[in-house]
Design brief:
The protein is of the alpha+beta class. It has 16 helices and 38 strands.
């Protein structure tokens, strides 16, 4: 008996109109819930309709599965089944397929899923826990386990979720549109974590390439591109001590020394003949990296972007899944375990985070619903020519909120300690890397991107509230004022700013042959002119050791000995200069070749004395930095630094004092020529013995061991505006650090 016969000639209204049925079968109907699932018959019964392409037969069972309530008859539209039942009650569908039998609840029997508050906050751009609302959420609805899918696609004509559970057939699970937000949703029963899925979207001009979920919490392993259903993060955190004390550790008067690394190329697992070499996963990385960080003395690690990205050669900077840790290194729980292990070992974790741009991959955010949804429509606003990427339209409230929620996701759910925000300069200026006529002015006719500025300020204000003690660090390469000033004072509100000017100037200096350095003397000292205009991090990052720029050791002029001496002197200068520290992996032992993301670092160099010497030097610098308050307490205040000699260009010598808040000084003297200088006089504020705490030319660092025998006493000779002075031996291409003895300091004070 056909459904038409079952319903009777006078009851055809129980079936949808032919127009609606045709639209559903063509997968073009905007409101499938109005047709499918249970519907009142106007009395005590219900009409049940299901569209199940390729199904052979469908029966209806009571929800307990014990009673057979009857059959859904196939209409004259293949795959469209319907039936009338005298009593309204919950039910199951028993579907016969060519491959077997399936019993399941009807997805179209469930009501609206997302609450009005979730939708309101999303539309407002202020949903701070979006990763637990949109996307694929494992839920129990009305006693039924399944997954709630929801996705924002306001300009779509139809959206379906597809996966193995429906043979990737977009006709099977078209979603419900929630007006007026443009969010589509559906609850699919009896599926769970691990399911791969995408969205099939019918745009204004046809079906789009299948789209990954912008809110995915997990993904397939690249090059596969599907999203994966993830259970709520099930991890028992053991880092409460760290989290409670983090705010104090992150105070500007505390040391901050960052080891930047790329998780996929730090160190690899070597499996032998039966197993190919591969990067460490999160568990292995924790096992090997944490002891290394403790050995070298860094306070934090900074991971280049670990959010899922389709192209490994982008190093993670072309992110598509802003909420999913890359499957390259394990599951989300594995990443949580990594962060937890770092915290339990007193190591902070910083994540590189990319709100400035996203790639054009067809399965990603580009033209997500057939329109410029996440990006600006105008390529003069929405396309980065330098990177062949698209630009987030942060002026759209939903996109603004999406990115705020991404930042909070990592900080709150994964206990990450800081976000390093990539490419901030490209966000601040509408004419960034554009010629005249290639950019769109703001509403006042200026070049500032007002929407991005509002976003960055909002981000920093929200992080301060939602993730107390966490840092937000800007990679900003221009002279934009107030990057690290509070938003209440008109600043952008970042905790720190990368000092790109310092990096550029000092590298240009150190790359000069020493004989020419006298003509570039100001490059090393110029950073002190503006050192306290912002709270700075001094970065020697991955960008400085790729693309033909040479490795850090290979930037140095001279023969092999001079290269290593230059490197040791440069790092010593960096660690004694005001500002927090960041060093990219491999620089700490003088890797010769440029960084290659496709293989591990050249660890075998540590067997050689010069490389081991640099490694030991960095470790000692970190320990000295963390021990001596003068090197960190007043990094961001002018009273923490005092020039003693800044104008001896002829000898390429610099001398300066670093001061603690209690008035305890360290004297730093750098000789940046290969000429040893004996009896070089340097003025100091206190008389008595000054101990030599550090010498970059020491034998333990593979230097020539030219120095001051552990210390030197002052002479009653005024020099450099000081009442006393020291006659020092300055090692070639070397830096020495001296400190007055405790007894003498107390006597003078």
């Amino acid at each position: 008996m056909s459904a038409s016969d079952q319903f009777g000639n006078g009851n055809h209204a129980a079936l949808p109109s032919a127009v609606d049925m045709d639209a559903l079968i063509r997968a073009e109907h905007r409101d499938p819930f109005s047709m499918l699932g249970p519907h009142s018959d106007g009395a005590e019964g219900q009409v049940i309709r299901a569209y199940l392409p390729n199904a052979l037969a469908v029966r209806v069972l009571a929800r307990d599965g014990e009673r057979d309530l009857g059959e859904l008859s196939m209409t004259d539209k293949p795959g469209f089944f319907a039936g009338h039942f005298a009593v309204r009650e919950p039910y199951l569908l028993k579907i016969s397929w060519a491959t077997g039998e399936q019993i399941t609840e009807d997805p179209y029997s469930f009501g609206e899923q997302l609450g009005e508050m979730d939708l309101y906050l999303f539309a407002e751009g202020n949903h701070r826990d979006l990763s637990s609302a949109l996307g694929a959420q494992v839920k129990n609805v009305d006693g039924v386990d399944g997954v709630r899918f929801s996705v924002w696609a306001p300009n779509a004509r139809r959206v379906s979720v597809v996966g193995d559970f429906n043979s990737w057939d977009g006709r099977r699970h078209p979603m419900r549109l929630r007006h007026p937000t443009g969010v589509w949703e559906i609850f699919i029963p009896r599926i769970g974590p691990g399911e791969a899925y995408k969205y099939e979207i019918l745009g204004q001009h046809g079906v789009l390439p299948l789209k990954a979920d912008p809110m995915a919490l997990a993904t397939q392993l690249p090059p596969a591109t599907a999203s994966k259903v993830a259970a709520p993060l099930a991890f028992e955190w053991q880092d409460s001590d760290w989290m409670q004390s983090r705010g104090e550790k992150h105070d500007i008067h505390q040391p901050l020394s960052i080891y930047e690394l790329h998780a996929g190329s730090w160190k690899w697992h070597h499996g032998g003949d039966d197993e190919p070499d591969r990067p460490y996963n999160w568990r292995e990385l924790a096992e090997h990296l944490i002891p290394y960080i403790k050995e070298t003395g860094f306070t934090h690690i900074e991971l280049m972007p670990i959010m899922e990205h389709p192209f490994g050669g982008s190093w993670g900077y072309q992110v598509l899944s802003q909420f999913a840790p890359s499957a390259r290194y394990g599951k989300p729980e594995d990443f949580a375990a990594f962060v937890d292990a770092c915290h339990r070992n007193d190591i902070g974790v910083i994540l590189d985070w990319v709100p400035a741009h996203f790639p054009t991959d067809a399965h990603g955010l580009a033209q997500f619903d057939g329109t410029a949804l996440y990006e600006y429509a105008n390529p003069h606003e929405g396309f980065h020519q330098d990177w062949n990427t698209l630009i987030y339209n942060l002026g759209r409230t939903e996109v603004h909120g999406f990115m705020i929620a991404s930042g909070l996701h990592w900080l709150k759910n994964f206990h990450v300690d800081a976000l390093r925000v990539d490419a901030v300069a490209s966000m601040l200026y509408r004419d960034y890397s554009r010629n005249a006529g290639e950019w769109v002015p703001n509403r006042y006719g200026g070049r500032e991107n007002l929407e991005a500025i509002d976003f960055l300020r909002h981000l920093n204000d929200v992080v301060a509230i939602e993730a107390p003690g966490a840092l937000v660090i800007a990679e900003e390469s221009t002279s934009w004022p107030g990057v690290s000033q509070p938003t209440q004072q008109g600043g952008l509100g970042f905790s720190y700013k990368w000092n790109m000017g310092w990096m550029h100037d000092t590298l240009k200096y150190v790359e000069q042959d020493p004989i020419n350095r006298q003509h570039h003397h100001d490059r090393l000292s110029f950073g002190l002119v503006y050192a306290w205009s912002e709270r700075f991090v001094l970065p020697i990052s991955h960008d400085e050791v790729v693309h033909g720029k040479h490795s850090l050791i290979d930037k140095m002029p001279g023969d092999r000995w001079q290269k290593f001496a230059n490197l040791r002197a440069y790092l010593s200068f960096m660690w004694t200069h005001p500002g927090k520290k960041l060093l990219f992996m491999g620089c700490e032992f003088g890797q010769w070749r440029e960084w290659n993301h496709d293989t591990e670092l050249d660890w075998h160099f540590l067997q050689y004395a010069e490389h081991k010497g640099v490694h030991t030097l960095v470790s000692d610098l970190n320990r000295l930095y963390r021990t001596e308050k003068a090197l960190y307490e007043q990094d961001c205040q002018p009273q923490g630094f005092q020039w003693v000699i800044g104008d001896d260009a002829g000898n390429s010598v610099y001398a300066y004092l670093r001061w603690s808040k209690e008035g305890e000084p360290l004297l730093v003297v750098a000789n940046l020529t290969p000429v040893p200088r004996e009896a070089y006089r340097v003025g100091v504020p206190f008389s008595g013995k000054w101990a030599e705490l550090f010498n970059s030319d020491a034998g333990i660092y593979a230097g020539s061991n030219f120095g001051n025998g552990g210390g030197v006493r002052t002479d009653e000779i005024k020099s450099h505006g000081q009442a006393f002075s020291l006659s020092l031996n300055l090692p070639p291409l070397g830096v020495v650090i001296l400190k007055p003895t405790v007894e003498q300091l107390h006597h003078e004070v």
